Amino acid sequence: MIRAATRPLAFVGRTVLGLLGAIGRVAIYFGATLGHVLRPPWYPRELLHQLLHIGWLSLPVVGLTALFTGGALALQIYAGGSRFNAEAVVPSIVAIGMTRELGPVLGGLMVAGRVAAAIAAEIGTMKVTEQIDALVTLSTNPMKYLTVPRVLAATLSLPVLVAVGDSIGIFGGYLVGTTRLGFDPATYIRNTADYLEAWDVISGLVKGAVFGCIVAVMGCYHGMNSERGARGVGRATTRAVVSASILILAANYLLTEAFFSA
């Protein structure tokens, strides 16, 4: 009877301990990555390859997402503002919403879906096929050769993607505002420029750098800890995307609280 009554508590305890253990392992892995970033040898050719793969090849999906998001945001703000005769706020709210929140968050989530999965699958496959063991045999540190270039590339690339996505998203709102909602083009641009501040843009770029680091670390961590076989690689890929997405949303709240709580 007592065992049956305490079984739910035991389940909760195991879950909490497992979660804390996972957080600790990720923190140790992240700390080791930072340590390797600061010490040679470095692999600039691998870094350039990852900048192309993570940054340039992610531009189409980030750009299309931002374009349609900016247009939809303009329609929604206009529909809501019309209830209070506040349609004129559409340009400023679209710009602030894209630069502060939607640009970095949606960019991070899109890159997480594309890059975290690819990194976890690639490194997981290397582990299954014992290519990582071969790197160790050749006196090459897997953390330096595989993890560090990907983390640096994602951290450097995502702010650029966020900046491009912000511009495209604001342009999408401009297109909808001037063609569908009857805004004067010059007035729309002037309202956008008057109410958009430098900190709105900078805060989004800082978020982008943090989100890029999260995406790469989650992809590398789950790939390095992939189980054997195709099923293990598939699980690592799924876990990388899910954990990166959750951490991006959590980090977004914490950063927003730190930047704008005052």
Oligomeric organization of the protein chains? single chain
What is the number of independent domains? Answer: 1
**Which structural class matches the secondary elements?**
mainly alpha
Q: What Rg is obtained from the alpha carbons, in whole angstroms?
A: 22 Å
Order of helices and strands: HHHHHHHHH
Give average pLDDT, whole number: 89
SSE diagram, text form:
Elements: H1 2-37, H2 44-55, H3 59-81, H4 90-128, H5 131-137, H6 142-179, H7 185-195, H8 198-224, H9 229-260
Helix pairs in contact: 1-6, 2-6, 3-4, 3-6, 4-6, 4-7, 4-8, 4-9, 6-8, 8-9
Question: What does this protein look like?
Answer:
By secondary structure, the protein is mostly helical. It has one domain (52-260). Helix content is 86%, strand content 0%. It has 9 helices and no strands. It has helices at residues 2-37, 44-55, 59-81, 90-128, 131-137, 142-179, 185-195, 198-224, 229-260. Helix 3 packs parallel to helix 6 and helix 8 (198-224) packs antiparallel against helix 9. The longest helix is centred in the middle third of the chain and has 39 residues, at 90-128. The protein is globular, with a radius of gyration of 22 Å. 39% of the residues are buried. The mean pLDDT is 89.
